[in-house]
Amino acid sequence: GTARATNGTNNNNIYEGDFKDGKAHGGGIFKWEAGEAYDGQWYKGLKQGQGVWRGNEGEYYIGEWKESRTHGKGIYVWSNGDKYEGEWKNGLKHGQGSDIFKNGDVYVG
């Protein structure tokens, strides 16, 4: 089903979306009290599939997730304006990608 719920340990964290067996499952948005937010697909309570994460300092990631880690193709933009576009594995840059720096420098590898 679909519901709105607060986190049991912190009632200022809010999840709105699909649930299965008491966990986020399907599409949904989780907003943390500190200002972070994730809008995307969930699987058994973990970020899985396509999603957008926004940090509380202006950084963000748009792309694929696996077991709540950046995994697959995605774009990460740091709060200083630097950007990485490419492949990720288990939360780390992995494979082909481009670092695009705010000052205009580009590294492709």
Question: Would you kindly provide a written description of the structure presented here, covering whatever features stand out?
Answer:
This protein has 109 residues and is mostly beta strands. The mean pLDDT is 93. It has strands spanning 2-6, 14-20, 23-31, 37-43, 46-54, 60-66, 69-77, 83-89, 92-100, 106-108. The protein has no helices and ten strands. The protein has a single domain (2-108), classed as Single Sheet (Histone H3 K4-specific methyltransferase SET7/9 N-terminal domain). It has a ten-stranded antiparallel sheet with strand order 1-2-3-4-5-6-7-8-9-10, with no helix packed on it. Pfam families: MORN. One of its GO terms (cellular component) is cytosol. This is Phosphatidylinositol-4-phosphate 5-kinase. Keywords: Repeat. It comes from Euplotes crassus.
Q: What structural category arises from helix and sheet content? A: mainly beta
Query: Helix coverage percent of residues?
Result: under 10%
Name the poorly predicted regions. none
Terminal CA distance:
43 Å
Q: Rg to the nearest angstrom?
A: 15 Å
CATH class: Mainly Beta
What number of domains?
Answer: 1
Protein name: Phosphatidylinositol-4-phosphate 5-kinase
GO cellular component, one term: cytosol
InterPro entries: MORN
Keywords: Repeat
